[in-house]
Specification:
The protein is an alpha+beta fold. Helices cover 33% and strands 15% of the residues. The strands form 6 sheets. The protein has a 7-stranded antiparallel beta sheet with strand order 3-22-21-17-16-11-10. It has a 7-stranded antiparallel beta sheet with strand order 9-6-5-13-12-4-23. A 3-stranded mixed beta sheet has the order 18-19-20. The chain is globular, with a radius of gyration of 22 Å.
C-alpha cells in the first residue's frame, strides 16, 4: 500500500472528504479507515466522488486534491475500479461518460461502447449458446473513451491517473466483504467448476493461492494486471489498441475461437456525441444518445409524466406508480422498435421530444393497465429469456470548478465472459450478447428481435446505460446513473421523479423503493411490494391489471446533488450493492456506504 498512500493518503482522511481537514496519523490507520470505511451521505464544497468501492473513491479524491479536474478523477476511478471491483470495473469493456462544463457549454457524451468485430454476422448467435467464451467479446472501448475524455478535459498527466491502480494491483489490497462474495461466486459457478480448463486463467488470476474461499481481510494481488496497467501508463491508450497489449488480446482470441483481430482493435474509436436533452419540471435533463437507449427512453418517460400534475397524488400512491409504469411500458416499446446504433440505422430522434411524449401520455388509461401485447403483437416462442445483465457500475464526480461527470461502464454480465487474456490479467467483456440474437424473433418473455439492434461488423450494440446530468438555470444540480441492465433507465427515472418532481432530499430519493416495467415481460417490478406502507398501493395496482412482483434490489444510483444557492456538493451512495451494500434502513439515509467527497 505504500505507493497508494503516496498518491492518496498523506494522513488520515476525515470521512475521506476532499477539502476536509487532513489529520496526521499512522499510515496503517489511514489504510484501515479507507479500506473498511462505512460512510453515510456527506457534503463538501470542494469536490465529490461517489463510486462502488472506497479505494476507487479515495483514488479519485486524491486526484482532485492534487488539482486534477473531475474528468481526471473519473479516469482514475475507472482504472481503480478495474482493480477493486473486477466484476464490472474494467479496461476491456465499454460505456458512456457524460460531461458538463460550467456555464452554457454543450453537454457532451463520450461514447466508448464496444463494437462488433469485423467477422461478426447477424445470425451468429441465433442458436442458443453459452455467453462465456471468446466469441462473445466485443471490441473494447473503455481505454479509448477514458483517453478521449482526458485529452479534452484533463489537467494532470495520464500516467499520474493510472499509477495508483498500478500500485493497488501490484502490491495488493485488502478484500472487503463485497469483493469476497463476488470472487467466491464467480469461482464457484457451476460452469467454472465443471470446466476448469476453459476457465484456467480466471482461476489462476483470481483464485485464492491456498485454494480456500476468499474472506474479508484477505489480500488480493493482481501482478499481471499491474504490468498491463503500467504499459498503459507509459505508452498511453495506443498500447491497448495497437501495441503489445493489442497483440496479446488478438493472439488470445485466435487461440480460443474469438473474432477480434489486431485490425479490429486498431480501428476502434471513441466518439464525442451531443447529449439527449429533455425538460422535466423546469429542469434540463441530459442523457446519452444511441447506441445507448438510455437518453431517448428516459426523455420519452419524462415528457409523458410532465403532462400530469404529479404532486396532486403522493409519490408512492397507486396513481403515481401507475402513471410511471405506463410511461415506462410505452417508452420501452418504442426503444425495442426503433433504437440501435445511429451510425448504422435511421434513429427517429423525435421520439425523445416533448410532442411525442405528450402524444404517448394521451394513450394512458388512468384506471387500467395497458396489456403490453396490445402495443404491438409479439411472437410467443419462449424457451429462454434474454439477459441484459445488471452487473454494470456507475460513478459520479464533480470538481470545485463545477465540471461534472456521470460515468457508467460495464463488462455486460458479472465478470463479463469470464475469459482473461493470458498473462495480462484483463477480464474480457461479453457484450456481443447485447445485440438482438435472433432476427425477427420477439417474445413475451422479453427477447427482442427487431432489426434496429441486429449484429453488423463495427456496429455498437444497444445499451441501457443512462449516466445523467441535470441542470437548472444553466448549473448542474444533480449527477446520477445506475447499473442494472434494462432496469437502469427506470432506476434513474425513479430518482428524478422523487428528487425533482416531489422535492425529496437526494438521500430519500436514492433510498426509496424503485419501480420497473420494460414492455415485455408484462410484469411490474416494485421493491416495495412487501412493505406494509405500500400494501394499499400494491393492491390497487393489481386491481388495475398490473402483475406486480418484487424482483429484489434494483440498481445502485451513486449520486451527487449540488445546492444551487450554496454550491455545496452532497454525495449520496446507494445501499443496494458493491461495498455500499447492506440491509435497507427504515430511515432515508444509507447507513453503510462508501463515499469520498
Amino acid at each position: 500500500m505504500n505507493g497508494l498512500r503516496r498518491w492518496a493518503f498523506d494522513g488520515v482522511l476525515t470521512l475521506a472528504a476532499v477539502g476536509w481537514p487532513l489529520v496526521s496519523g499512522a499510515q496503517q490507520e489511514t489504510a484501515s479507515r479507507v479500506e473498511r470505511a462505512a460512510i453515510e451521505a456527506v457534503s463538501s464544497p470542494l469536490g465529490m466522488v461517489v463510486s462502488e468501492t472506497p479505494l476507487a473513491s479515495a483514488v479519485g479524491a486524491a486526484v482532485l486534491e492534487d488539482g486534477g479536474s473531475a474528468v481526471d478523477a473519473a479516469v482514475a476511478v475507472g482504472f481503480a475500479l478495474a482493480v477493486t471491483w473486477p466484476e464490472a470495473g474494467n479496461i476491456a469493456g465499454g460505456g458512456f461518460m457524460m460531461v458538463a462544463e460550467p456555464g452554457d457549454a454543450e453537454v457532451v457524451c463520450i461514447d466508448y461502447r464496444e463494437t462488433a468485430p469485423g467477422a461478426a454476422t447477424p445470425t451468429m448467435f441465433a442458436e442458443k449458446r453459452t455467453r462465456f467464451w471468446h466469441g462473445q467479446v466485443g471490441v473494447p472501448g473503455t481505454v479509448r473513451g477514458l483517453a478521449m475524455a482526458h485529452e479534452r478535459w484533463g489537467r494532470l498527466p495520464w500516467a499520474r491517473l493510472i499509477e495508483p491502480s498500478v500500485e493497488l494491483a501490484r502490491e495488493g489490497f485488502v478484500v472487503n466483504d463485497a469483493l469476497a462474495r463476488s470472487l467466491n461466486e464467480v469461482l464457484n459457478k457451476r460452469i467454472v467448476r465443471r470446466d476448469p480448463q476453459r476457465f484456467a486463467e480466471l482461476i489462476r488470476v483470481y483464485g485464492k493461492p491456498d485454494g480456500e474461499p476468499w474472506a474479508a481481510g484477505d489480500r488480493l494481488v493482481l501482478s499481471d494486471l499491474a504490468r498491463t496497467l503500467q504499459h498503459l501508463a507509459e505508452g498511453g491508450a495506443d498500447t491497448f489498441y495497437e501495441g503489445s497489449v493489442a497483440a496479446a488480446i488478438a493472439q488470445d482470441m485466435a487461440e480460443h475461437g474469438g473474432l477480434i483481430t489486431e485490425a479490429d482493435l486498431a480501428g476502434y474509436r471513441a466518439i464525442a456525441r451531443p447529449a439527449i436533452h429533455a425538460r422535466f419540471q423546469g429542469y434540463d435533463v441530459f442523457g446519452p444518445p444511441p447506441p445507448s437507449a438510455g437518453g431517448l427512453t428516459l426523455a420519452m418517460m419524462l415528457h409523458q409524466l410532465d403532462t400530469f400534475d404529479l404532486t396532486e397524488h403522493g409519490r408512492y400512491s397507486a396513481t403515481t406508480l401507475h402513471r410511471m409504469a405506463e410511461a415506462m411500458r410505452r417508452a420501452y416499446f418504442w426503444r425495442a422498435r426503433t433504437l440501435g446504433d445511429a451510425d448504422f440505422i435511421d434513429v427517429p430522434f423525435e421520439i425523445g421530444g416533448p410532442a411525442f411524449g405528450q402524444l404517448l401520455a394521451t394513450t394512458i388509461d388512468p384506471g387500467q393497465a395497458t396489456p403490453s401485447h396490445t402495443l404491438e403483437p409479439a411472437i410467443p416462442l419462449a424457451d429462454r429469456e434474454p439477459h441484459e445483465s445488471p452487473d454494470t457500475t456507475h460513478y459520479s464526480v464533480i470538481d470545485a470548478d463545477g465540471l461534472a461527470v456521470s460515468n457508467t461502464y460495464t463488462l455486460e454480465m458479472s465478470w463479463g465472459s469470464r475469459m482473461i487474456t493470458k498473462g495480462h490479467g484483463i477480464v474480457l467483456n461479453n457484450e456481443m450478447g447485447d445485440f438482438n440474437r435472433a432476427p425477427g424473433v420477439t417474445k413475451t418473455t422479453g427477447q427482442i428481435g427487431t432489426l434496429a439492434n441486429l449484429i453488423a461488423p463495427g456496429k455498437r450494440m444497444l445499451s441501457s446505460q443512462t449516466p445523467t446530468l441535470v441542470k437548472k438555470d444553466g448549473r448542474v444540480v444533480l449527477i446520477t446513473g445506475s447499473p442494472g441492465g434494462r432496469t437502469i433507465t427506470n432506476t434513474v427515472l425513479n430518482v428524478l421523479v422523487s428528487h425533482l418532481a416531489y422535492g425529496m432530499p437526494l438521500t430519500d430519493a436514492v433510498d426509496g423503493p424503485r419501480l420497473h416495467h420494460q414492455w415485455f415481460p408484462d410484469v411490474l417490478e416494485f421493491e416495495g411490494t412487501d412493505a406494509p406502507a405500500h400494501a394499499d398501493a400494491v393492491q390497487q395496482l393489481r386491481a388495475m391489471g398490473h402483475d406486480v412482483k418484487d424482483d429484489g434490489r434494483q440498481g445502485s444510483a451513486n449520486s451527487i446533488a449540488i445546492d444551487p444557492e450554496t454550491g455545496v456538493f452532497l454525495g449520496v451512495p446507494d445501499w443496494r450493492r458493491g461495498a455500499n451494500a447492506h440491509a435497507p434502513q427504515t430511515n432515508a439515509t444509507p447507513q453503510k456506504a462508501e463515499t469520498t467527497p
